[in-house]
Design brief:
- The protein has 156 residues and is α+β, with helices and mostly antiparallel strands.
- 29% of the residues lie in helices and 31% in strands.
- Helix 1 (13-24) packs across helix 2.
- The protein is globular and about 45 Å long.
- The two termini are 25 Å apart.
C-alpha cells in the first residue's frame, strides 16, 4: 500500500469520486441531512485538492482510500476520510491518518479535528480507538437536534 499526496499530476478524479461515494454509501438513509459527499463532483474534488492537503492510498492500481486536511488556526481539520468497504479493517485509515498527523506536525499544529454524524456510532468508536475524544456537539442549519459531533486528537 502506497500513500501519495494529491498534486497537479493527479488525474484519476472520477475514480476518487467513486471511492468517496462508495465508501459513504452506507450512510444513505441513516443520516439526516444527507452527507455533503453527495454534492461532490470531479471538479469540486480538484478544487478541494488545490486548497487542502489531499492524500490517497493506492493498492496495486486501485485507489483504496483518501483523506483531505485543512489547516485551521490551532488544528488540522480531517475531512472526507474514506476507505473502500473491501479494504476497511486493513489499516488504510490509520495510514492516511498518520499522513495527516505528519502534515500537522510540519505545520506546527498539535491537534487533529474531525466531525462525524451523531448516528454513526461505529465511527465514534473507531475514532476513539485512534485517540480522538468527543469535544462538542453541533447541528446543521434548520435542525433542532444534534446532527454531528466534533472529535479531537492531540498529537506530539
Amino acid at each position: 500500500m502506497l500513500i501519495q499526496r494529491l498534486d497537479n499530476s493527479f488525474h484519476r478524479w472520477s475514480e476518487l469520486l467513486d471511492l468517496i461515494l462508495t465508501s459513504f454509501a452506507y450512510m444513505d438513509g441513516r443520516i439526516d441531512p444527507p452527507s455533503s459527499a453527495l454534492s461532490l463532483t470531479q471538479q469540486s474534488l480538484k478544487e478541494k485538492a488545490r486548497h487542502e492537503l489531499g492524500y490517497i492510498a493506492v493498492d496495486g492500481d486501485k485507489i483504496a482510500g483518501c483523506v483531505f486536511c485543512r489547516a485551521e488556526p490551532d488544528t488540522l481539520y480531517i475531512g472526507k476520510l474514506a476507505v473502500l468497504p473491501g479494504a476497511q479493517g486493513e489499516g488504510v485509515g490509520k495510514r492516511l491518518l498518520a499522513m495527516a498527523e505528519a502534515a500537522a506536525n510540519n505545520l506546527g499544529l498539535t491537534t487533529l479535528r474531525l466531525e462525524t454524524r451523531i448516528e454513526l456510532t461505529e465511527n465514534h468508536t473507531t475514532f476513539a480507538g485512534w485517540g480522538f475524544v468527543k469535544t462538542a456537539e453541533s447541528r446543521h442549519p434548520g435542525f433542532d437536534r444534534t446532527t454531528s459531533i466534533e472529535m479531537r486528537k492531540t498529537i506530539a
